[in-house]
Amino acid sequence: MKRSIRLKACIGLLAVVCVFLSAKGQGTAFGIKGGPSYSSVVGDLTDGIKFRFSGHAGVFVEFDVSYNFKLQPELVYSSQGFQFTTDLAAIDNGGSNTDQNRTRTNVRLNYLTIPLIAKFRISDKLNLEFGPQFGFLIDQVTLLRVLDGTTNTTADRRTRIGGNFQLDYGGDVGLEIRLTERLNLSPRIYIGLRDRLNALPQAQNVNVSMQLAMAYTFLNR
Q1: pTM of the predicted structure, to 2 decimals
Q2: Which residues does residue 38 pair with via DSSP β-bridges, in sequence order?
Q3: Which CATH architecture has domain 2-217?
Q4: Which of 10, 65, 114, 190 has the most crowded CB, counting CB atoms within 10 A?
């Protein structure tokens, strides 16, 4: 309940700031964005964990602070997570790789994220982007697939647990490539700073995500 209240407060504060700046400042634009993501968890105790493809989509507001500097708060749904494969037969045979009975696990971590992006002009077609990002975990969906190598059959099991809006935070860095007056392409990397797996007190492992977004601006300056 407390995390839910904090989430609503953050969203409300972001909306108030956006409305205030829109009313006070010149050169305001808003738009939508979305595209593919490639994410995982890296750090200690993550051997065998692989990246997974997913996606993200959201809205943004852009404010001109000066000719070379802009601010862009965003509200984005981001599907992150990771995947790994376990050879059950190898475990039963003391580590011998039999490739007969494997379990493939795909963990999807669905976040509502708030990137607060600063944009510095490099040229008329290129901006440097960086800034903090705060994420709130909506839920965790785990798909477990068991492949029987002897019969070529699969058995899937899907589970979902609530995220209780658990906080994740880190930093974004990327580029904005201006394709047309309204259309931009934005490759970006997110690196988390909060321990994700919570396996051991001395272990540190964090979310990472590479995103490629196409952004469309509705209101030009």
Answers
A1: 0.80
A2: 53, 210
A3: Beta Barrel (2.40)
A4: 190
